[in-house]
Amino acid sequence: MRISANPLRGQQFPAVLLLVAAGLGLLLANLPTHDAVAAVLDFHIAVPGTGLDLSIAHWVSDGLLAVFFFVVAIELRHELTHGELDSPRKALQPAIAAAGGVLVPIAVYLLIAGGEATVLGWPIPTATDIAFALGVLAMFGRGLPSSVRVFLLALAILDDIIGIIFIAVLFAHDVQWLLLALAVVAVVAFALLSRITNPKVRPLIVLAMIVIGIIAWGLVAASGIHATIAGVLLGLVMAPAPAERTRHALEPLVNGAILPVFALVAAFVVIPALAPAELSPAFWAIVVALPVGKIVGITLFGWVGMSFRPKGTPPALPFGDLLAAGALGGIGFTVSLLLANLAFASDASIRDQAILGVLVGSLLALVISAVLVSLRARAYRRLAAAAS
């Protein structure tokens, strides 16, 4: 297999870049630079002739992140049609594990922060950051069988689908159905244009698709549905061949710029000068639900799922491998940060503490998963050495 020389197409470097960007955002928010950076992020840019008037922070979370979700949707569609989830038989085991990785963190969150002021944050700890999880696996998992990566990939993809559904359903507001219908028309036009294969008109087709894609994004944003859903719709309907070329072209941009910029902006929160007992229950719920809830949910439900393997499915993963995958699933980060911003958009204090909870919980999961993955990989390397 040919390995790309571009580190932005790998798994390790983008994960490190995300972590550095989040740390930088947190640092800038808690130094004398806070007011200057906050003024930049709060600066509004309007699009003449439209109702779009967003701050730079919202252009990042609603605009740039739509490109990330566009790439995610292309990968999702591939996995659902030709990849790890292209049949119910393949999807059953990771689907059961993914259900545990959603239900148990929700239960943990509600147990700790089920009060009226914080209950809306229950979707936050349900996400798995596939880039981070695969990056940690690549860094510390030398010697692990490929079945662990396949299981984790399928699990994270299902988590992405659940996260997208949460964003689309839970955080819509005052939906303008006419604008949404026009957005659907634009998405259909985008899909049809992507299927024109005449090379003579390809440059014009690409230009038209970019324009229509931007129009679809604007219509979705104005309709009351979160704008990132436009990226999802466009990625799902694009013809497979041009979609794969586009994903390949956008991958370095997404990994090297879009996700780090989002991480920096999302992590730009002031650490509250509060005693631990004074912190919001949302903070503690996320800190516990991401590493603990995910490990327990994915491991236990995954173990149950392995017990009901249909005939012809791959061999069951050992319990230790399930435990390592569960720990990796606790790295919520990108989608969890977005969900924290959406869930507590009307309460800046709780929102900032929820974001801190995502950063702390994801960091704990990262450390725990690095240890567990390293131990499992070492065990497999010893077995391989003994057998040779």
TrEMBL record:
<feature type="transmembrane region" description="Helical">
    <location>
        <begin position="54"/>
        <end position="74"/>
    </location>
</feature>
<feature type="transmembrane region" description="Helical">
    <location>
        <begin position="316"/>
        <end position="342"/>
    </location>
</feature>
<feature type="transmembrane region" description="Helical">
    <location>
        <begin position="95"/>
        <end position="113"/>
    </location>
</feature>
<keyword id="KW-0050">Antiport</keyword>
<dbReference type="GO" id="GO:0015385">
    <property type="term" value="F:sodium:proton antiporter activity"/>
</dbReference>
<feature type="transmembrane region" description="Helical">
    <location>
        <begin position="177"/>
        <end position="194"/>
    </location>
</feature>
<protein>
    <recommendedName>
        <fullName>Na(+)/H(+) antiporter NhaA</fullName>
    </recommendedName>
</protein>
<keyword id="KW-0813">Transport</keyword>
<feature type="transmembrane region" description="Helical">
    <location>
        <begin position="201"/>
        <end position="219"/>
    </location>
</feature>
<dbReference type="GO" id="GO:0006885">
    <property type="term" value="P:regulation of pH"/>
</dbReference>
<dbReference type="InterPro" id="IPR023171">
    <property type="entry name" value="Na/H_antiporter_dom_sf"/>
</dbReference>
<keyword id="KW-1003">Cell membrane</keyword>
<feature type="transmembrane region" description="Helical">
    <location>
        <begin position="281"/>
        <end position="304"/>
    </location>
</feature>
<feature type="transmembrane region" description="Helical">
    <location>
        <begin position="150"/>
        <end position="171"/>
    </location>
</feature>
<dbReference type="InterPro" id="IPR004670">
    <property type="entry name" value="NhaA"/>
</dbReference>
<keyword id="KW-0812">Transmembrane</keyword>
<keyword id="KW-0739">Sodium transport</keyword>
<keyword id="KW-0406">Ion transport</keyword>
<feature type="transmembrane region" description="Helical">
    <location>
        <begin position="253"/>
        <end position="275"/>
    </location>
</feature>
<feature type="transmembrane region" description="Helical">
    <location>
        <begin position="354"/>
        <end position="375"/>
    </location>
</feature>
<comment type="similarity">
    <text>Belongs to the NhaA Na(+)/H(+) (TC 2.A.33) antiporter family.</text>
</comment>
<keyword id="KW-0472">Membrane</keyword>
<dbReference type="Pfam" id="PF06965">
    <property type="entry name" value="Na_H_antiport_1"/>
</dbReference>
<feature type="transmembrane region" description="Helical">
    <location>
        <begin position="119"/>
        <end position="138"/>
    </location>
</feature>
<comment type="function">
    <text>Na(+)/H(+) antiporter that extrudes sodium in exchange for external protons.</text>
</comment>
<keyword id="KW-1133">Transmembrane helix</keyword>
<dbReference type="GO" id="GO:0005886">
    <property type="term" value="C:plasma membrane"/>
</dbReference>
<keyword id="KW-0915">Sodium</keyword>
